[in-house]
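Hi C.,

You asked whether I'd gotten around to modeling the 341-residue construct. I have! Everything is below, sequence then structure, no commentary in between.
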Amino acid sequence: MKPLSIFTRYDRLGASSRLRYFIYERYLRKGGYAPEYHYFYSNEYLQALYKGKTCPCALPAAWFRRLKDLIKIRKNVVIEYELLPFLPYFVDAAFLSRCRYIVNFDDNVWEKYVNIPFLRNKLDKIVRNAAGVIAANDYLFNKVSTLNNNVIKIRTVPDAASYNYKLPKFEKFTVAWIGTPVTYRYLEAFADTLRAMNAAVDFELLVIASAALKPIQGVNMRCVDWSPEVESGLLCCSHVGIMPLTDDQFSMGKSSFKIIQYFAAGIPPIASPVGENSIIIRDGVNGFTPNTPEQWVEAIKKLYDDSYRSKISENIKISSENLTIRHCQQQLLDFFDRIFV
């Protein structure tokens, strides 16, 4: 078995870490690797963050935990973005210089450092010195390809086996949005369009994030707590999924995981035509990418029709053939085998 140190940003509660690292553990072991996982931020940190609470000691505590873990660093390493967030590159480099490492990106995290001079070029340096780079979408792939010649695109995908799209639908026409209390701002910024959609079609907006979220005034909403046990069932019982985004550099680097989840649940997505959304969705074929509020309203009116929605759902099955753990885990293993010895 090849020893492998995996340094994630979050423990298993964090979606990016869970779906790009922890979910592959059994496949890595079958492929001849002995992965050891080391998270930076704990589940307790995320739970507090989602409740709007912050602790000034969280970052120093995470640094201390990570430095203890780095004592045990292996010669083969995978990192999520960086080793030590908010510390300069030379600190990470002191450890990364002792190993062969792959760095993995699913978000445009460069934006977090753009106004911090001593961190602005940190991620570029990490990418430039990596043995390989994994990017979750075209935007990130193109970005890192200017810095490193050994780059592969591997999407973030759910475990499709946990999605039973044959579950009966909710009695009331239901439009789903799944996310976190932190990303709920995207939905709040979309309030006027949601109200126009709800005026045109009588639906319930199911927000799968936190039951404590404040509903958007003028929209028929139900907010429920997210958990890995309920997310797939709630999506499969819904009729449509939405993913509104703002058109900015951070959104351009998002990996459209919500859309891939909606595909796994067999429900048509309506999403802003930003970044990877426009690549995954073929407008009018397996979903909709409306530009204007009027087009969002028109999309929900079309999908309210059962027969039309069924046709879109059939097209989704074809579109989802390569959006599976089986496909991505083979890509991952092949890439690891080329780099790690």
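If it helps when you're writing up: Residues 111 and 249 are 7 Å apart (CA to CA).

Thanks,
B.
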